């Protein structure tokens, strides 16, 4: 059962490609590269995560030993720069949800790095576009064309299989038995919080699809009898934003119970939407299957993803990644950049005081590979990483772009039921210790996204950027009343007993 | 929207009926009423919960005030003895899963107490009997005959509706809209841990049915716009047995986070089977819908239920409650009593060192009514009760019955992946404060169950009491190897940091 693998983190394809990808030449319209007060404020907010970044050491013997110790059946070694593989270290990887915004760049990244990739998708994301009357701003190709193009460009094969993970259990099991993957990456979940709150149908679909799909995958792995490592894309939202009142650790938290008993527990879940809730349900399923069946599981609590293309997707226009700008699926920074590119006001919800974690889509793929090549030991607890590069307040991001471009900001009623303002301090050492070097949000990267938005502006339906999903009936009323800043603090389970602060 | 209700806890029907029901006359064969050393040991184990019982005050002004304070839209008053209603306090109650072992006695109890009951069931429990080749030891009637008989006996009407809660969302919503219930009691979940571990199909069914059904119910309530209070039957198993190292509080726990921050959190979940896991998933869904939509939710973490009949089911043989004795659905004490009645060895798993909470089925119904008439305030956190009367080690229960009856004990390989021995100390003050007086396991009650088992012994298939569901491949191997006491400690997330004890 034990597999002998040797994985080296080095300075090859990943980083080189990343640099190549970043060589955009255009600058922002308006005030190019100006760093205004809002940008400084954003930098301040970003500093919350800096302590973690400082602790990150790229090449130390201790880190290398730590990485080796984690994988019971692999012998990974760490060196400077990035990820590449020595002979014989290629893995067979099934990517569930491989056609999506994070899935597709991850498939390409892993294939580019020499792994054998089987991409599974039922194209539900494309069907939801039809349902919402939306379309990716970038003209994405069919999965068949995508993998055909990738083969033309690189000579490497990605196999595409259409399976509904939540419904077609027998097909999923058959796939595992036939391909005997080392790893299953699980992106096959409905991933938009606003969509998950849209109405009864969408709430139910999100739970049935996400929880049912996750559980089917776990059951199929147990039934297959194979030693398959699962890497799951979770979200920072499982923690509940900022309500623990201190730095958010990576998955587990040390607590003192009554009687002065010291214990380590899974970080309490406090999700803010049906979508986020499904990721918490996943976490409990993972905990059980790790304990009961000894499955190797890695859960990646990711921040909000921005960016579009990666070093792989830019190699041919037919490989372009999707770009969502609508209020359901468009992540906040991408929406702002698209609005800036089209010179329409940026829509900030409520006060914009929400502090969130952010990560570029290229880094998502890098993190996934780092997780894939460093599986936790069997029979150990679920490995949890915070997959986030930096933190910012939403209004600071908007102001930063406004300072560069002159784009106006519209503070509109917050459709979400959430704290109007929150702090967020996140530990993200683990990926740093594995050699992942996060790209920070800066002018060059922002320009790249803005260029994409400008290039395809003719394809945009500007009405779609305004929210149509409301978290509850009070939020509908607030929108009707034109309320902007008065989002009530939702009832808090996390109460500071000493101060009474929520 | 506000309903004016006046509910009085008094000494009427409930307790009088309960006493009538308990007037069994036969005594145990073997050593009648002898209290051996094992019974004393059991009493010692039971003492773990005694502190809570002592704290229980039946009639205090403070309690009454507390009860009134809980229900924002009701004005409940507490007096001694039991539960009954003053004029105008009848509730309309939908009981999901009303045909089951706990569901049916609860329907009758609530109807008997004057509430209007709509019983919903898709008869899945009966279908699973067909699938497993099992049958209730007691000859249960169809739901149609059950409700017809109840009307003949009492003049009271229970409406029966066949809906699959996990699949027929629109019918469920229609039901809510038509009947505008004050309360929905949710029993509609696959409830056997061994069945949930039987194989891929059963694992998947348990998650799809339980999580999908719970979520459908919540979504339908939100969509209906009605102020419906949910009472859900959960399980003590959500806490993970005994691993928190101290008394288990009712749902929430006070912890100290790093930086000496005092907080109250939902008790960490650490379930031991797919079935138990679904109850933890429910808890997270409840937390979200209470926070986001202000739903009133009560979650009852119940111990292992024993007993068969209640003061209502004994009124006509056609009302008899189901009695499961098979290894999948038979709860442990009922299985032992049935084995004693048939003079076959009692099957104790592993060392029998598992300490569990127990409750008689009559008390389940009483607790449900207490919860129903005392809804939590809207927009508050989920109300959580520990619905358990006493705690015992499994081997002590077996020994107690052996001492009375001369029945032998077979210690067999534990099919479950669990700690071989655990302590369990449970807080159960809340129901005491609401006037619920738990029946303790004693000779009289045990005899009643034994009489049922003897009466219907001709219907039993004795092969069915031996386990056929194993938690994982290691447990299958242990059974094959004939291992009895060596059940390994499963990997623990709860580690005492100071002592290293798991």
Automatic annotation (TrEMBL), chains A, B:
Hydrolase as UniProt keyword: yes
Family statement drawn from the similarity comment of this UniProt entry: Belongs to the NAD(P)-dependent epimerase/dehydratase family.
Keyword list, A-Z: Hydrolase, Signal
UniProt keyword annotation of Methyltransferase present: no
Residue span, NAD-dependent epimerase/dehydratase domain: 93-377
A Pfam family reported for this protein in Swiss-Prot or TrEMBL: Epimerase
Enzyme class, broadest EC rank: hydrolase
Sample GO molecular function, one term: UDPsulfoquinovose synthase activity
Alphabetized SUPFAM superfamilies for the sequence: NAD(P)-binding Rossmann-fold domains
Protein's UniProt name: UDP-sulfoquinovose synthase, plastid
Endpoints of the signal sequence: 1-20
């Amino acid at each position: 059962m034990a597999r002998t693998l040797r994985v080296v983190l080095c300075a090859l394809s990943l980083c080189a490609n990343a640099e190549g990808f970043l060589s955009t030449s255009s600058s922002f319209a308006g005030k190019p590269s100006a760093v205004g007060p809002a940008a400084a404020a954003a930098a301040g907010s970003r500093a919350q995560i800096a302590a973690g970044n400082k602790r990150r050491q790229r090449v130390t013997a201790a880190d290398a030993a730590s990485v080796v110790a984690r994988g019971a059946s692999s012998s990974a070694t760490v060196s400077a720069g990035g990820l590449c593989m020595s002979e014989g270290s290629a893995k067979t990887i099934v990517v569930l949800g491989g056609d999506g915004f994070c899935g597709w760049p991850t498939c390409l990244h892993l294939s580019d790095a020499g792994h054998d990739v089987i991409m599974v998708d039922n194209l539900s994301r494309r069907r939801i576009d039809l349902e919402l009357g939306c379309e990716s701003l970038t003209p994405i190709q069919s999965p068949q064309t995508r993998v055909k193009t990738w083969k033309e460009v690189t000579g490497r094969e990605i196999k595409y299989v259409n399976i509904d993970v939540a419904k077609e259990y027998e097909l999923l099991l058959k796939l595992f038995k036939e391909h005997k993957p080392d790893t299953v990456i699980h992106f096959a979940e409905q991933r938009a919080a606003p969509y998950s709150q849209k109405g009864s149908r969408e709430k139910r679909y999100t739970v049935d699809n996400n929880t049912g799909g996750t559980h089917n995958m776990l059951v199929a792995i147990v039934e297959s009898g194979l030693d398959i490592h699962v890497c799951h894309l979770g979200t920072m939202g499982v923690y509940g934003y900022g309500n623990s009142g201190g730095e958010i650790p990576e998955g587990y938290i040390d607590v003192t119970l009554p009687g002065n008993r010291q214990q380590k527990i899974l970080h309490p879940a406090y999700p803010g939407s049906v979508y986020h809730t499904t990721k918490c349900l996943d976490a409990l399923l993972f905990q059980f299957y790790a304990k009961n069946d000894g499955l190797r599981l890695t859960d990646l609590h990711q921040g909000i993803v921005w960016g579009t293309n990666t070093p792989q997707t830019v190699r041919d226009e037919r490989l372009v990644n999707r770009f969502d700008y609508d209020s359901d699926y468009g992540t906040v920074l991408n929406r702002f950049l698209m609005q800036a590119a089209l010179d329409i006001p940026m829509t900030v919800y409520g006060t914009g005081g929400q502090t969130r974690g952010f990560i570029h889509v290229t880094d998502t793929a890098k993190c996934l590979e780092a997780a894939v090549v460093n599986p936790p030991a069997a029979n150990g607890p679920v490995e949890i990483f915070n997959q986030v590069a930096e933190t910012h307040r939403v209004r600071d991001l908007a102001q930063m772009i406004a300072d560069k471009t002159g784009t106006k900001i519209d503070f509109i009623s917050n459709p979400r039921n959430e704290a109007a303002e929150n702090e967020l301090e996140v530990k993200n050492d683990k990926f740093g210790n594995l050699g992942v070097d996060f790209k920070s949000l800066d002018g060059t990267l922002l320009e790249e996204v803005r260029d994409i938005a400008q290039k395809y502006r003719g394809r945009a339906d500007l009405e779609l950027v305004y929210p149509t999903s409301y978290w509850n009936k009070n939020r509908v009323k607030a929108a009707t009343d034109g309320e902007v800043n008065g989002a009530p603090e939702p009832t808090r389970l996390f109460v500071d007993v000493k101060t009474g602060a929520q």
